[in-house]
Amino acid sequence: MQCPRCQSTAISKNGFRGSKQNHRCRDCGRQFIETPQTHRGYSDDVRELCLKMYLNGMGFRAIERVTEIHHTTIISWVKLSEAALEEPKS
Ligand SMILES: [Zn+2]
Asked: Where are the domains of the chain?
């Protein structure tokens, strides 16, 4: 876990806010509530690599086997990139 302000990992627990664990950064004093580790996603490089494999005719399952990224994730990337490629309707 990191401080949202200074990225320090010197975090101490600081009681509870309601039912949430409150934390305090020992470096800058910032208090914050731990946010559930949201799915960070993959880097642009990884995403582009998957899209490249897809465009080269690889199936989603094959890409999944190579990259160990779930095929539904790859499908959503493909959909996103296809949506981005669409001509704006005007
Ligand atoms: Zn801090």
From this structure: 1-37, 44-85
